[in-house]
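Homework help board

Subject: predicted structure for assignment chain

Our instructor gave us this sequence and asked us to write out the predicted structure in C-alpha cell form, then describe one feature. I got the C-alpha cells but I'm not sure how to describe them. Can anyone check?
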Amino acid sequence: MAREPRILFCEQDYSLARIGSRISGGLSRGAMLRQVRGQLVNGFLTLRKAHKSRLTSSMMVINIELTNHCNHRCKFCSTGLNTNIREKGKMDFETFKLIAQQISPGTTVVIAGFGEPFLNTELELFLEYAHTFGLTSNLQLLSNFGAISEKRIRRLLDYPFKRLVVSLDSMSRETFIEYRGCDDFDNVLNNITILSDEMKKRKTITQEIMIQMVVTKKNIHEKELFIDYAKRMNFIPRLKQLNTHNSFAGQLEINEFEVPELSRYSDLSYSRTCMWAWGGMMVFWNGDVTICCQDAQGIEVHGNIRNDSIVNLLNKSTLRCDFRQKYFNDPGQIEICRRCDVA
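My C-alpha cell output:
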C-alpha cells in the first residue's frame, strides 16, 4: 500500500542541502561521491558566474522528451495550443540508449518534455534499459494518464521508477475541459481508479504515486475535494503553481487563470543561480539538446546527442557557453529566461 499521502506545493529543490535525501537510496558510495562532487563544482562555477571552465561540471537533472505528440490541449502548453513549431515525432530506442549510457546514477531523470510519454509505445522498454544503468532510483514519469490502456496500467508498477505524477487538475468535467482543452475527464478518472485498484492488490509498492493539480482561478474551489480524493485513492496529492512562461501566453489568458497570490512570478528579479546553466539539460525526441525544460520551441538548441557526448554538450558546446555568458550578464536578454521564476 502507498505511504501516507502528503501535500507538495512548489518545484523540486535541487540544492546541495537536500542532495543526501535525494540520492542516498540505493546508490553506491562512489555514485554518491560523484553527485556531491558535481553539486560542489556546479555551485562553484555558478557562484563565479563562469561561462566556461577547465573544471568538468556534472549532470544533476535531465528532462527527456519521448514524444511531442499529446492527446490533451492544455491552455498553458505550446503543444496543446498548437503553437510549437518543432517537427512532431517520437524518440527511438537507439537515441534513448545513447542518453542512458552517459548518465550517472543519482541524476534526476524526468520523463516528460512537451508531449504525453505513454504515446511512445516503447516507454516500458526505456524504463527497463535505464534500470540496467542504475538510473531508475531517481526517475520520474509525468503523464496526463489519458493515453494508456488498462493492460499497461496494470503492469506499470512492475517497471522500475521512483515517481509517477498524474496530472488531473480538476474535480469536475467543466473545469477539466476549461484547463485541459478536451473532454477526457471520465477516461482519466477511470484510469486512476484502475491504478489505485492495482496498488491495493499489492502488499507493497516501491514507487511514489502522485496526483497533481495545477491551481488556477478555475479550480481553486475544488482544492479540498481534490486532496480528499487523492487520499482516498492512496495517492500523494500535489498542488502546483501555474506555469505561464513556456507557452508565451498572453496577459488576458494569464489574468483569466492565474491566482495572483499563488503566482510563480511575483519576484521579477533574477538570481543568476539557475542550476540548469551548469547542471541540467533537456533532450528532445529527435536527440536535439537544449538548456532546460522551459525551451518548448527549441530556441536554445546547441547540439544533438547523436553527434556529441553529454559531457561536451553540457560543458564545451560553443552555443551553450555563449548562453551561459548571456545568462550571467543579464538573464532578461534571453527569451526563455525572461520572467522565468528560477532564472
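Reply (TA_rk): Your C-alpha cells look well-formed. For the description, you could write something like this. The first strand starts at residue 8 and ends at 9. That's the kind of observation they're looking for.
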